[in-house]
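Narrative of activities, Objective 1.

The group set out to show that a structural description can be obtained from nothing but a protein's sequence at a throughput compatible with the screening campaign. Below is one input-output pair from the validation batch, recorded exactly as produced.
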Amino acid sequence: MNGAGRITPLPVPPSYDEIAVSKKFNRTGENSEPRGRVYSFELTLPAVSKDSGSKAEDVKRFRISFDLPTVKGAKAEASGVAVIAQDGKAYLESENDQFLAAGSSRPITVQITVPGDPAHLPQEYPLDGLKATRLPGR
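Output recorded for this entry:
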């Protein structure tokens, strides 16, 4: 409700827009401690909003999330971002402001370790629930 008592819709803040993110599977390898597989990906984060018709917009802070197995010892590691694993999800969040000019993109290398019998684990990790959002700048 505004000051005049009228109900007006509030626009969704652009700082919470979903951003398109793409993945490229690099390789997989067996891990000995803990026994399992290590999957390597390159995620590409473009400074383009997903919902606004692919309109290029600056990005200062972002968060990428995807499903992570709830197996004990499963973890995700990435370069240049903070990694949080919680409730079967992995969150890769920019540390401080990492300016990405409109229309440009940034690669992020991610390694996912999944414990288990390598013969029963998939050759390529599916990265279900992969999503990126723009966060408000500080």
